[in-house]
Fold this sequence. Notes:
Oligomer: single chain
Radius of gyration: 21 Å
Distance between the termini: 41 Å
Strand content: 5-15%
Strand order of the largest sheet: 3-2-1-4-5-6-7-8
Number of domains: 2
Amino acid sequence: MGSLGASVGVIGAGSMGGAIVRGLIASGALDPTEAAAADPSAVVLEPLAAEGVRCVTDASELVALGTDVVVLAVKPQVLPQVVAPLVDALAGRLVVSIAAGVTLDTLGTLMPTSRVVRVMPNLPLQVLSGATAVCPGASASADDGELVRRMFAALGSAQVMNEHQLDVAGAVTGCGPAYFALFVDDLVRAGVRAGLPAAGCREMVLNTMRGVAQQLLDSGEHPRVYMEKVTSPGGTTAVGLQAMEGYLFDAANDAVDAALERTRELAEG
């Protein structure tokens, strides 16, 4: 038995749903025999089936397996039609939704007899370095919330927060992998423009990014303290930061505001 001490079934085995299952197995939180996945695409299920995960193409079959946790890893736009035929079978069950913008109120309306927890994970959980916000609904017990938190903590960092904070976390860390990838690409292109070979520059930038993240995590230092270690008075880093900081700060705020606005639009249907 895995360290989570509970079985997990995931409806929707795409990039995020599949990553959750694989990550839980890789971390030791789940034994493959304690995991199940449902997806209409048999091709999508093949990698999970090869790892010993019980795979089905019909969501009702997965729910019938009686796993301790059912994760809804489907797009917000299709979640209502996926859930509608499962309502009775999900009565009294612990259900976790990762659908962006689908509020606890909406989830409670769709599944009035389920114990619902809303979460906002991100894709680095594929390499056990994810960041997940967890928000239990009123129907979920404290034990339910803690089980879901431990489940996603096995995939990186997981924190319990209120629903407004969860939406902000989605706009920051949920979208964050794409923001960071864009920054890497921009920095590489700047290096290429100044004369570096593309492949070598990309490798160096990615290793630098990984190293900085690991050092900050290990030390617990504030990023500003770390920046001071790299920045000599009047040096190249100082002038580079001066050129970048204002634009980067504005861009980060604009990105989070735009993502939150889209979250609200999704919530309104």
